[in-house]
Design goal:
There is one protein chain. By secondary structure, the protein is mainly α. It folds into 2 domains: 124 residues, no CATH class; 160 residues. 85% of the residues lie in helices and 0% in strands.
């Protein structure tokens, strides 16, 4: 009697092996070209964020995708130009005042708050040395001439840096335009490059990641923009002298749960105390942030973001802290998108694992 035949695992197909080699070559190329990839990555992000809007406009108007891309592109460029010419100079002036105010806040903390905390806790707190911090901040701010001045100083420090900066400014809109115009064709081309055995699982993963990540990023950016404008307008109208800068800061960091409102309250409270406008304005500040928190929780986040990532707030905080610890500022920016994609991968892996267990349980 012949021995039972044992099926050995199928070897890698030629297409799969070629795809793996291609991925390795792509990774090496990206590593070697990293210094010049920044404008292309920014353009890729812009294309990804605005692709649904261009697609929707092209479908509704019945026009070409090139025309829809041109319309969206012009509107975005006009908005950015207005932001640069009007809002940024005003915000930078307030940022400078806010930076110079921080050492005074620490000095006030040392004189007024620290003794009470030490008395209640029965222990001494470490010294913050406000004079040294004030000197350090003032020195670096004078050297840079503000953030814009520091950027101009870096660009003007050498001809190559200036040329690179101008080239990046030109490349970003140009590459963004072509990516937006040709986005469906590029995605279809990438799909055709995949080995047949990979197409279905990779497509499922890409579609779910796009649904999760795209909706989350677009919704979260809108929430940050809405909160930043709300904080900036209401604080300025209430009479907080640096309301614009404080509002923008609170809006920018609002993607981390509770951090935006805490940072905003601390900065606004410090500004009000040093303005000397009394408790009425301080109460108005607290009401503004309370209303904003309710608005975010009840209206903005459920409407614009929803539960797109499936991440618990604790997981969001951990992802942001881990990203900052590992990769600095860019790690903070990329933490939530990466966590969202990983969440999709984990969900699909768990679903596949449960399906395999269910199939084994049904097998007699």
């Amino acid at each position: 009697m012949a021995a039972p035949r044992v099926n050995s695992p199928a070897p890698f197909s030629t297409a799969t092996l070629a795809a793996l080699v291609g991925l390795v070559i792509l990774g090496v190329a990206l590593y070697l070209l990293a210094p010049i990839l920044t404008p292309f990555l920014i353009a890729l992000l812009i294309g990804y964020l605005f692709n649904p809007l261009v697609t929707r406009l092209a479908v509704r108007t019945g026009g070409s995708r090139t025309l829809a891309t041109l319309v969206i592109f012009v509107l975005v460029m006009l908005g950015l130009a207005g932001l640069v010419l009007v809002l940024i100079p005003l915000a930078m002036a307030q940022f400078e005042r806010l930076m110079l105010l921080l050492p005074e806040v620490i000095a006030w903390f040392d004189e007024q708050v620290r003794p009470w905390i030490e008395q209640q806790a029965g222990d001494r707190l470490p010294a913050l040395e406000p004079a040294a911090l004030q000197e350090l901040l003032a020195e670096h701010w004078r050297e840079a001439g503000g953030l814009a001045g520091g950027l101009l100083h870096w660009l003007g420090s050498s001809t190559s840096a200036l040329v690179l900066g101008v080239l990046n400014l030109v490349l970003i809109p140009v590459v963004s335009f072509y990516l937006l115009r040709d986005w469906p064709r590029l995605v279809a081309g990438l799909h055709d490059l995949l080995p047949r055995a990979w197409r279905d699982p990779v497509t499922r993963f890409a579609v779910e990641s796009d649904n999760t990540l795209g909706a989350f990023l677009r919704g979260q950016l809108l929430v940050m923009l809405a909160l930043g404008l709300f904080y900036a307008i209401t604080l300025s109208v209430a009479g907080v002298q640096m309301g614009l800068a404080i509002g923008l800061i609170a809006g920018l960091v609002s993607f981390v749960p509770y951090v935006g409102v805490i940072v905003g309250i601390v900065l606004a409270t410090a500004a009000v105390l040093f303005q000397g406008d009394g408790w009425t304005l301080l109460l108005a500040v607290l009401v503004i942030f309370a209303v904003a928190q309710v608005l975010e929780s009840v209206v903005l986040t459920p409407w614009l973001v929803g539960d797109r990532t499936g991440l618990h707030p604790v997981a969001v905080i951990f992802a942001v802290l881990a990203g900052g610890q590992l990769f600095g500022f860019f790690g903070v920016l990329l933490a939530l998108p990466v966590a969202a994609v990983l969440a999709v991968a984990v969900r699909q892996a768990l679903a596949r694992y449960r399906g395999m267990n269910a199939a084994e349980a049904d097998t007699p």
